[in-house]
Amino acid sequence: MAIPLEKLYAIAETLSINITDLLIEEGEGSKVVPDLIKEYKKIESQELRYALIKSLLEEIRICEEKVKRAENCKGFSKRRNFY
């Protein structure tokens, strides 16, 4: 299953890592997800785990909204230039 690029950017920003760390190259397999899960499991506090997940989901939502606004602005700009 492919994850939209904007979601990867949001996840990378929230985790304070470079997006290239989340990208899987061919032959590399699906090593990234197990590594993320392993790091997540190192967090002992349920509250911190919940806060991390909540933060990731909120960042994804915000990023999706920004993308939609940018797409709407592009569409508006194209329509305006058409007339």
Could you please describe the fold and organization of this structure?
The chain has one domain. 71% of the residues lie in helices and 0% in strands. It has helices at residues 5-15, 32-42, 46-82. Helix 1 (5-15) packs across helix 3. The longest helix is centred in the last third of the chain and has 37 residues, at 46-82. The protein is elongated and about 55 Å long. The relative contact order is 0.12.
Keywords:
83 residues; mainly alpha; 3 helices
Number of domains: 1
Fraction in beta strands = under 5%
Question: How do the helices and strands follow one another from N- to C-terminus?
Answer: HHH
Given the helix and strand composition, which structural class is it?
mainly alpha
The global form is elongated
The average pLDDT is 75
Helix content: over 70%
| Spatial separation of the terminal alpha carbons | 41 Å
Largest sheet: none
Compute the gyration radius: what is it?
A: 17 Å
* Number of separate helices: 3
- The tally of beta strands, per DSSP, is 0
Low-confidence stretches: none
Summarize the structure.
The protein is mainly α and 83 residues long.
Per-chain topology:
Layout: H1 5-15, H2 32-42, H3 46-82
